Structure formats: structure tokens, C-alpha cells
Amino acid sequence: MAATATSFQALIQPYSNYLSSSSLFPSSTSCIASPSSLLKPKIICSSSSSSSASPLTVVNGNVERSSVVPDRKEIRLGLPSKGRMASETLDLLKDCQLSVRQVNPRQYVAEIPLLSNLEVWFQRQKDIVRKILTGDLDLGIVGLDTVTEFGQGNDDLILVHDALDYGQCHLSIAIPKYGIFENINSLEELARMPQWTKEKPLRVATGFTYLGPKFMEEKGLKHVTFSTADGALEAAPAMGIADCILDLVSSGTTLRENNLKEIDGGVVLQSQAVLVASRKSLIQREGILETTHEILERLEAHLKAAGQFCVTANMRGSSMEEVAERILSQPSLSGLQGPTISPVFCKRDGKVSPDYYAIVICVPKKALYKSVQQLRAIGGSGVLVSPLTYIFDEETPKWRDLLQKLGL
Ligand SMILES: Nc1ncnc2c1ncn2[C@@H]1O[C@H](COP(=O)(O)OP(=O)(O)OP(=O)(O)O)[C@@H](O)[C@H]1O
Ligand SMILES: O=P(O)(O)OC[C@H]1O[C@H](OP(=O)(O)OP(=O)(O)O)[C@H](O)[C@@H]1O
Ligand SMILES: [Mg+2]
């Protein structure tokens, strides 16, 4: 087993079994057995209202919950209260006709009028994850990085939708471009540097005090120590506080501006916004499965539609089959399940017959112009392009997955 010559060393070693799993959500992992939870003292507080009540254990800000969900009627959904995910989350819900009605921005409770048994609670992202674990929230929309860092492999967290298509970033190690790191370009090379010893370990600055040590341990890096700060981590190497950082990257601008570079094999996690839920809530709380099903169906149908345009065009031809053959001869015109073709009837010389055909296809947004060119090439005219609100599949694949995860 790899040893880390640090203040983490004593903490990591006894828990190496928990750290060695490569799965994000190993079924047997407990959230209390983690290096970061052990960084802070366990606070044991007794309930003052009842002498017989069992003490609450607060671990790394997470209150361990009982196996029974708190007794309340409403289903609670946590949404980011501020920051870069907040407005995009509200926009996504609005696009799914699930607009959130908030009386004023400083009020932390709101509603989605279409979902009558649901309360929305605006919270910091990490608190959404913590509160799902304590049972104070049932569902939440947050970044996968936050779920993974603060969920710490807890089996109660279930990803209902793992790709909401915004908030994309990755958690990555970055090292200086200069000095002893000039020719270092991979995690392997970083690990092999002779500079890191028991007495003088590699110093990593990160806000991810659970995932950081876990990743280094899994990659077999010896002699690593971690320090933490709440932001502007990119300054740490230049300030001499750390040798490298482990932080979120999206455009890469902050790294570049601070003379830092990513390295091969240094990505810990790819992240985007996800819908997460408490397994216990999903199983025990009345009405939650129906509400989750509706949210999930709308999300999936909207996300599928968001990448497509609906294209209609007119086309002359001798029959529907002949028109279909011409359309299907073009690679960008096959639509979702093939083209819809309807005859457009005209009266000529007193006789009603199909004069031309109207075709309807779904086209990926990225391929729109190519599709229009191909339509024209086979005699299409009067091409109309409109956005799509939803594409409902016969069955929601993610719903099937969820039922399977719940053993239902
Ligand atoms: N470039 C990025 N940097 C940081 N987070 C990003 C980036 N791009 C997307 N994200 C997502 O946004 C989340 C962070 O949002 P934000 O910075 O608003 O919150 P925060 O500052 O971490 O929250 P808090 O103030 O509660 O600590 C990340 O967890 C991640 O999922
Ligand atoms: O790759 P980029 O697009 O440059 O984004 C990455 C930066 O954005 C985040 O910081 P944030 O803006 O949240 O400020 P913070 O450092 O105070 O956390 C993150 O911690 C990085 O510093
Ligand atoms: Mg930052």
C-alpha cells in the first residue's frame, strides 16, 4: 500500500480499504470512513429535549441519519442558491415547463406550481448533498464533483440523471510550467520526481480534501501532503505554499493566467450538473417516485429535443415510397426513426390527387446546414426549421435504470 508522508498519513492508512475502490458509489462504503471527515473533530452533542434521545454525531458537517426518512408530507428538492450553477438550473427547469416560483431572491423556499407536493429549497451546493444525506432534502441538482466530494461514496445517494448538460468542468491536477516542473507532463513523471521524500512530500493545495487523498492513494503516489483553501488556489504554487493544485477547470484560463499546466493522467473526475436523490426517500416517501418520474421524463425529453431541430419541406414525387427512398439515400436525413411523409392533395382537372409530399424529419442542430443542402439536392423546397420542446421516448431509459438501482 502506498504511504503518504504527511499529516494525512496516519489518517489514510487505517482507511485504505475504503479508499481503494475505483467506483464513485461503491455499495458498501460508509461516508464516515474518510480522511476529510477525520480532519475535523467529531462533535458529539446530546439532545437537550429528551434525556433518552440518542446523541447526534456530526461528521464533517454531515449528520448521520437514521434508516427512516423524516416524517413530512412534502417532497423537498434542493437547488443551488448562488454561483454559476444557480441561474442555469432555473433556466433548465423553465425549459422543462417546471418554472420555479420564488417570491423574492432572499427567500430560500419556493415552489414549482406544476408539482403540487414539492418544495424547492435554495441551498449552497455542498449543503444540498449534506442535507440529502441527513434526509432534510430528498432530491437535488448539483455538480457531480460536489456529489462525489461531499457524498463520499455514501450508498444512499443515487444519480437519477447524470448528465444535465451544463456546469461542465473537470477536477484536475495542475503543476507549474516553470522550474523543476518544466519537463514534467504526466502524473507518472510527477510521481517519479526524486524531490518528494518522507521529510519533504509533494504539497497539493485543494478544496477537495476527500477526493484528493483518495485519488493520490489510488494512483500509488507516495509522499503527498494536502493543504486547503476556499478559493484562488491557483496562486498557491507561485506563493510557495504548494507545489501543485487540484481544482476544477473549465476553460483553462485561470491555469494559463497563473502559469500552470495540466498533466496526462491528472484528471480525477469529469463533472456536470446532475439530479441526485436519497435512496431511502425514493423508497419510503409517499409520492416521490411519481414526482421523480415526471421530473426525469421532462428533463430527458427536453435534453433530447435541445440538440435537434424539426425540419419540414415539400418534395415532388411519384409516391410516398419513392420520396422516402430519395430521402433515405442522404446520410443526414434519416431523422429519429425515419422521415414522416404525408401527401399534399390538389384538385386538377376535377380530380383530387397527391401533387407533392410534405416531409418532416428531426435533424441534429450541428448537422442542420448539411441537411438543408441534402434536401435541396434531392428536390426539396420550402424548408421550414423550428425548435423542438420535447422528444418523449417510448420508455425513459434513465427511469428503467433508476428502478433497477432501487431494486424495484
Ligand atoms: N470553472 C469552474 N470552476 C468551478 N466550478 C465550476 C466550473 N465550471 C462549472 N463548475 C461547477 O460549478 C460548481 C461551483 O459553483 P460555484 O463556484 O458557484 O459554487 P461554489 O463557489 O463552490 O459554492 P460555495 O460558495 O457554496 O462554496 C462546481 O461544483 C462545478 O460543479
Ligand atoms: O478553467 P476556468 O474557466 O478558468 O475556471 C476555473 C476556475 O474557476 C473556479 O474558480 P471560481 O471562479 O469559482 O473562483 P474561486 O477560485 O474563488 O473558487 C475554479 O476554482 C478555478 O479557479
Ligand atoms: Mg478557483
From TrEMBL:
Residues 305-389 form the Histidine biosynthesis HisG C-terminal domain. GO terms for molecular function: ATP phosphoribosyltransferase activity; magnesium ion binding. Signal peptide: none annotated. Pathway: Amino-acid biosynthesis; L-histidine biosynthesis; L-histidine from 5-phospho-alpha-D-ribose 1-diphosphate: step 1/9. It holds the Pfam family HisG. It is found in: Plastid, Chloroplast. Residues 124-300 form the ATP phosphoribosyltransferase catalytic domain. Keywords: Amino-acid biosynthesis, Chloroplast, Glycosyltransferase, Histidine biosynthesis, Plastid, Transferase, Transit peptide. CDD domains: PBP2_HisGL3. InterPro entries: ATP_PRibTrfase_cat, ATP_PRibTrfase_CS, ATP_PRibTrfase_HisG, HisG_C, N-reg_PII-like_a/b, N-reg_PII/ATP_PRibTrfase_C. GO terms for cellular component: chloroplast. It catalyses: 1-(5-phospho-beta-D-ribosyl)-ATP + diphosphate = 5-phospho-alpha-D-ribose 1-diphosphate + ATP. One of its GO terms (biological process) is L-histidine biosynthetic process. Its EC number is 2.4.2.17. Belongs to the ATP phosphoribosyltransferase family. Long subfamily. Catalyzes the condensation of ATP and 5-phosphoribose 1-diphosphate to form N'-(5'-phosphoribosyl)-ATP (PR-ATP). NCBIfam families: hisG, HisG_C-term. This is ATP phosphoribosyltransferase. It comes from Papaver somniferum (Opium poppy).
